[in-house]
Amino acid sequence: MSKVTVTRLFIGSLIAAGAGAILLIIAVGLAFANDLFVMNGDQVVNVRGGPLALALLALAVAGGVAIVGAMIGGLVSWIGALLNTSQLESKTWFLVLLLLGIFNFGFFAMIAYVIVGPDGTSAAASRRAQVAAPA
Predict the structure, then answer these.
(1) Is residue 102's pLDDT more than 60?
(2) Are 12 and 95 in contact (CB under 8 A)?
(3) In the prediction, which pLDDT does 127 show?
(4) 3-class DSSP state for residue 82?
(5) pLDDT band at 19, cuts 50/70/90?
């Protein structure tokens, strides 16, 4: 997977996560504004039914699905970045991406990779061209 593909997938995942979060915030905010939640102190004990409640539930579920899809897209982009950097001669980027991803700092590693990371597919192609050229 090329760096361009990894970058597009990662940025698309960020956009999907933002859109899902906005949908969830809107759904919960509208539910509170329309008194759909029955409160006992600061706890929600019941939800008033009706067409608005179903519409807001659908909106919240759509937001949740978008966030889950974004998480899957982010994971796939991280794996693609790992596969891309594993083709480099220097394994520094690979190790940084791997260790930060394992220790839950993969988001920051992916931001760094998208901004300044190398493209392992172009390095692998140039190595293949050098091997194929007669000496």
Answers:
(1) yes
(2) no
(3) 60
(4) helix
(5) very high
Average pLDDT for residues 12-22, to the nearest whole number?
98
118 SS3 class = coil
Q: What is the pLDDT of residue 114?
A: 95
SS3 assignment, position 42: coil
Q: Which residues contact 10 (CB under 8 A, 6 or more apart)?
A: 73, 74, 77, 81, 110, 114
Nearest to 24 by CA among 68, 60, 61, 56: 60
Find tokens 């991406």 and name the residue: 97
| HSE-CB for 131 with a 13 A CA cutoff | 6
The amino acid at residue 130 is: Q
Instruction: Please name the residues in contact with 71: beta carbons below 8 A apart, sequence gap of 6 or more.
Output: 13, 17
Take residue 55 and report the two structure tokens written for it: 């519409």
pTM: 0.82
